Structures are given as C-alpha cells and as structure tokens.
Amino acid sequence: MSMADERLSTSAVATAAGLSESWAWRARDQGVLHEPHFEEEVVALRVYAFVSQIVWPGIRRPRSEAQKLELWQQSAVEAAREAAADHNTTPDTALWVLEDSVHLVTTPAERAAFDLKTLSGRVAFRIPVGVWVAELPDAIAALGPRRRRNTAPRTAA
Questions:
Q1: DSSP 8-state class, residue 37
Q2: pTM recorded for the entire structure
C-alpha cells in the first residue's frame, strides 16, 4: 500500500480511524502515537483501541486502575503500523492477537499453517488490518482540508 507523506493532526488521526478524540489522546499519553502523525498511525490507533480493551480469560483487570500497555498490546500496535507501511499488505491480511504473541497472516496458506501450528484451541482475536489499510485512502480523503492554526498574535480591537 502506498502511504503519502502527509502529516496529520491527532484529531485527524482519530477522525480517520472512526474513533473519538479521547482514544487518540489516551494513545498519545501512553506513548502509542508520536508527533508527527502519518497515515499508518490511523491503523495503529484502531488496533490500540481494540487491544487495550481485551481481557484474557483468567486475568483480572480492575477498572479503577490505570491500565498500562502490556508487551503483547505494544507488539500488536507495532505490527499494525508495519502492515500499514508494507507494500505486501492486502485486504486479506489479518493480525492475529494471542495472549503471548501477535502474527500477521496474509495468504490462505499462511492462515492454514498458522491455524494448525499456533491456534490449536487457544483463545485468539483476528483483527482485519488489511481491510483497514485498504480503507485508508478514502478515510484520509474524507478528512478534507484541515484548518491551520493562526500563529500571528491577535490584536485588540
């Protein structure tokens, strides 16, 4: 997939991802999003919003505690970012998230091998990152022109 070098605001990343801005600010505060933002951050934010809500069977996560990203969550976000920048990503590319690992799978043969070798009755989530990457051009185009902040000081009237 071809990514443009257009920089996006944090708000634009959230809008293109179809998420509220609070997700983008939370991702920024947890070190998931870094300035400047480019198109692959849209997919990374969508994956962050997904994986940050996963609670594995048998794991307790009190809602009152601030949740830090675990290694598997960070790995999922980075894998999504890589998939967004990879020219081999297709709409069939999926990110499989397991409690201890993440896997990008594109072809039917890779999917079958992954299923036989890795899944085998384990709990896993399939995230359609390839579809999300394919939707990026339309999501970015829908943003339209963004207003720039006026950096000149205001004069009193």
A1: B
A2: 0.83
The predicted-structure confidence for 37-87, as pLDDT tens digits, reads as follows 888 999 999 999 999 988 888 887 777 666 788 899 999 999 999 999 999
Strand, helix or coil at 84?
helix
Among candidates 10, 21, 12, 84, which has minimal Cα distance to 47?
A: 84
∠ CA 98-99-102, rounded to 5°: 40
CB 8 within 8 A of CB 37: yes
Q: What span, in angstroms and rounded, lies between the C-alpha atoms of 6 and 78? A: 20
Any residues with CB less than 8 A from the CB of 71 and at least 6 apart, and which?
A: none
Q: Is the pLDDT of residue 36 over 90?
A: no
User: Which runs of consecutive H residues, i.e. helices, occur in 3-70?
Assistant: 10-17, 21-29, 40-51
* 3-state secondary structure labels for all residues of 111-132: HHHHHHHHHCCCCCEEECHHHH
